[in-house]
Write a structure and sequence with these properties.
Oligomer: single chain
CATH class: Mainly Alpha
CATH architecture: Orthogonal Bundle
Number of helices: 5
Distance between the termini: 24 Å
Structural class: alpha+beta
Number of strands: 8
Shape: globular
CATH topology: Arc Repressor Mutant, subunit A
Mean pLDDT: 81
């Protein structure tokens, strides 16, 4: 559940080493600033607010892109932004990805511990 995964300190969400300051629209990973585009930040903030829940592309489109969600190529926009976010949040190949792809459904924001548990299950 989200309350176990992230801690929200006022307008700041903390998930593992990831810190998201919602009003300032700033993100830090391992105490280092992460430069994001406005849409990348909005997608990350959406996933973080729903940490632990799996979100479909349609849910992300509606919450982040709004009315744009019904235009041609909108799902591809989500895929591109999430791919870029995952790349920016994974400075070290051994780091957990924070954004987990849920095959056949969408994406889920996960903590370090949840990533390790998922990885252990997938290797059994």
């Amino acid at each position: 559940m989200a309350e176990n995964l992230s801690s929200e300190i006022g307008p700041v969400i903390v998930i593992g080493q990831l810190k998201i300051d919602l009003p300032a629209r700033c993100v830090w990973l391992n105490e280092e600033f992460v430069s994001l585009t406005p849409l990348e930040f909005d997608a990350l903030a959406c996933l973080a607010r729903h940490a632990g829940q799996c979100l479909s592309p349609a849910e992300l489109l509606c919450e982040v892109w709004g009315c744009y969600a019904r235009t041609r190529g909108a799902k591809n926009q989500v895929d591109c932004r999430i791919k870029s976010l995952r790349h920016k949040l994974k400075a070290n190949p051994d780091d957990p990805p924070y954004i987990l792809r849920v095959r056949g459904y969408g994406w889920q924001m996960v903590s370090d511990e949840e990533w390790k548990a998922h990885r252990a299950l997938s290797h059994q």
